[in-house]
Design brief:
Elements lengths: L3 E6 L2 H9 L8 E4 L9 E4 L1 H5 L8 H7 L4 E3 L3 H15 L6 E3 L4 E5 L12 H15 L3 E6 L2 H10 L5 E3 L5 H5 L12 H9 L5 H6 L2 H8 L1 H10 L18 E12 L2 H22 L2 E11 L4 E12 L2 H15 L6 E12 L12 H25 L25
Parallel strand pairs: 2-4, 7-8
Antiparallel strand pairs: 1-6, 1-7, 2-3, 5-6, 9-12, 10-11, 10-12
């Protein structure tokens, strides 16, 4: 029988901020955007803020109403990623099968330790829980079970800082009375369809016939029925088994509506730097780029193109993003939000089709800029995010054409 752990960092962003700044532990805190900008909402909250009724997505004024003592902290996503990587590395001393589920959650398959029944793994789960608190200064909730779905449910049942066991002999008593919405992958529209059919609990879902649930929800509904009956056999994937990322992107709501390419440049460059950092960490480059915008009337438009060479440098990503906008956006309305996504990702050593027209020059330029990105990141890692920044704006007159004049 398998023994699967699901480890969930409690109140991840807020907990990491309090680990870095212990003086914040005296207050309810919320990691949030700038109160003076439209993205001023709660992204994460501490346990004490949660007890006051503060919810993720609350506007800051509402969070302040619910919890007058609350302290707002700006997010530091690079730090959260560093903590996440460090904690995953800690898990790997017990098993190579560590599968992330977002920054704050991981599944671990520890059955190779040959301890027998799931309950025999409780001392190991307790050791991990205490070590994470001691080493990293944050707490985790751990679900211990015989499959991934129930391990995830177990970590959700008791928070914060707890270990919960769900065994095959007793899962019906523990799991079946829970609302069907607590089942992983049961989204809002799926849950509403189940409610309309009189299915409100996981036990009720488990008791219907497979034919009924397939007719109601299709193949995905049949998967939920399998999960509700404790028959999930999906493996915990080791890093070398996990599918390669297909795309990488970043987006933001602008502080004010923007009506020109010039005003978009700082935001485009900031997004491009985030994407370039992610590509560098995973040793990937994108052979396609997409820019998507939300206009002032809240409608969306997107523009994309495929490339004959791999993009990985922030300046090249920014240049091609702005070129896409210059060539395609009509500016009948101002832009409220913008995002960039690189797709068709590959590692640099993967074979790919080359073009005969001008691509080597662009490829060399990308490599040069990528080396600069690497040097900048080393400086920021050592001296802080504000240690170095772009200090000029490029000339914009050529951006209606491919950067460098290459034939695309």
């Amino acid at each position: 029988m398998r023994a699967i752990f699901h480890c969930d960092i409690n109140n991840c962003f807020a907990s990491i901020e309090m680990a870095i700044h212990p003086e914040l532990r005296r207050f309810p805190i919320a990691v949030a955007g700038d109160p003076n900008e439209r993205r001023g909402i709660v992204l994460a909250k501490s346990e004490s803020a949660k007890q006051c009724g503060v919810k993720t997505g609350d506007p800051l004024w509402r969070a302040r109403q619910k919890c007058p003592r609350i302290q707002f902290v700006r997010p530091h996503f690079e730090v959260y990623e560093q903590y996440s990587r460090g904690i995953r590395q800690y898990y790997k001393q017990y098993t190579e099968r560590v599968e992330p589920y977002g920054l704050d959650e991981c599944w671990l398959d520890v059955t190779t330790r040959q301890l027998g029944e799931c309950s025999c793994y409780l001392p190991l789960a307790e050791k991990i829980r205490l070590d994470i608190k001691r080493i990293f200064g944050v707490t985790v909730s751990i679900g211990v079970s015989f499959n991934k779905i129930f391990a995830k449910l177990g970590s959700d049942l008791r928070k914060p800082d707890a270990v919960t066991l769900i065994e095959p002999e007793h899962f019906r008593e523990q799991i079946w009375p829970l609302p069907v919405s607590s089942l992983l992958y049961a989204g809002r529209s799926t849950v509403q369809k189940l409610w309309r059919s009189g299915i409100f609990t996981i036990g009720q879902l488990a008791s219907v016939t497979p034919m009924f649930i397939r007719n109601l929800l299709g193949k995905n509904g049949l998967k939920l029925w399998v999960y509700a009956n404790g028959r999930d056999d999906s493996p915990v994937l080791a890093p070398y088994e996990q599918p390669m990322r297909q795309s990488l992107g970043h987006g933001t709501t602008l502080a004010r509506d923007v009506s020109s390419i010039v005003d978009l440049w700082p935001t485009i460059l900031m997004l491009s730097e985030h994407i370039a950092m992610g590509l560098q960490e995973e040793n990937l480059m994108g052979f396609g780029i997409q820019v998507y915008v939300r206009r002032m009337d809240l409608t969306f438009q997107q523009f994309q193109m495929s490339l004959d060479f791999g993009l990985s440098a922030s300046r090249m990503i920014a240049d091609y993003s702005l070129m896409l906008l210059a060539q395609n956006y009509d500016w009948e309305q101002a832009i409220r939000a913008i995002g960039i996504r690189l797709f068709d990702l590959h590692t640099p050593d993967e074979p790919h089709q080359l073009s005969l027209f001008g691509v080597p020059e662009q490829s060399r330029k990308n490599q040069s800029y990528a080396q600069i990105d690497g040097a900048v990141q080393k400086i920021r890692t050592r001296f802080g995010e504000d240690a170095i920044a772009v200090g000029h704006l490029p000339k914009l007159k050529h951006w209606c054409h491919p950067p460098g004049g290459s034939n695309l």
